User: Fold this.
Amino acid sequence: MTYREIWHEIHIHSTPRKVYQALTDVEKLAGWWTTDTRGESTVGGKLEFWFSGHLAAEMVVAELTTDSLVRWRVTERGIADWIDTEISFDISRGRKKTILHLRHSKWREEAAMFPECSMHWAIFLLSLKEFVEMGRGRPHPYDMPVNI
Amino acid sequence: MTYREIWHEIHIHSTPRKVYQALTDVEKLAGWWTTDTRGESTVGGKLEFWFSGHLAAEMVVAELTTDSLVRWRVTERGIADWIDTEISFDISRGRKKTILHLRHSKWREEAAMFPECSMHWAIFLLSLKEFVEMGRGRPHPYDMPVNI
Assistant:
């Protein structure tokens, strides 16, 4: 079985700590991804990301390493193409900036939403960057409407 | 040998013709990707994309199907990670919009620039969308500085 993977890198002018917090504090997740974020960011806990009243994905928090790594696994609740895929955020310190790698892996070859989600992840990473650097992101429903 | 692929989808509120022109007219390419674009967009012809005085990539135009498909192959001139990779733009008509798929394929597994370029392609597709929809893109050196 071959899988596809989305893999983006973005640089954020802030500390690894602030980036880690934006990825692990439910209120902060709601500040850059979707305003309707629910659940608990603890290992084994579940997070829900709702878009306009639809549950896009429920994630189990698989791994948390302070200021360095966040890893989620998508459960059977939510968009079919995302089920059993994995999302990781790898945080590292660069020169005067923080380097963030998003990897959304284990996409099945036939998953039709792959290219659209690849584009959307980039847009939400730009939102995350703005949230961390300037205190204000563009979470859904305030996100850039590229696919309407 | 396993290869990686960047694959983004974006929707553009315009005609397939306008999107095709933005991908095949050298002056229009300079309006959304990099202001210093040179060469000839004919099958077998070569295009050069310069960023701040550096040749990022020289492409051979491998295929052109009017209003539908553009395919380039990167030559040995330019960034090492891009050599022999392939780029395709697939254009199709949606409801009241044009659907564009960018695929940048045949990346070697060890190519370190992959995640950074994945992010940059998304940013330049947003620039292309603005260029086609509103007549003004954000080509380099006017692009969003996400990786500095």
In short: The first helix of chain B runs from residue 16 to 24. Chain B touches chain A at residues 4-11, 97, 101, 114-116, 118-119, 122-123, 125-126, 129, 144, 146-148 (CB under 8 Å).
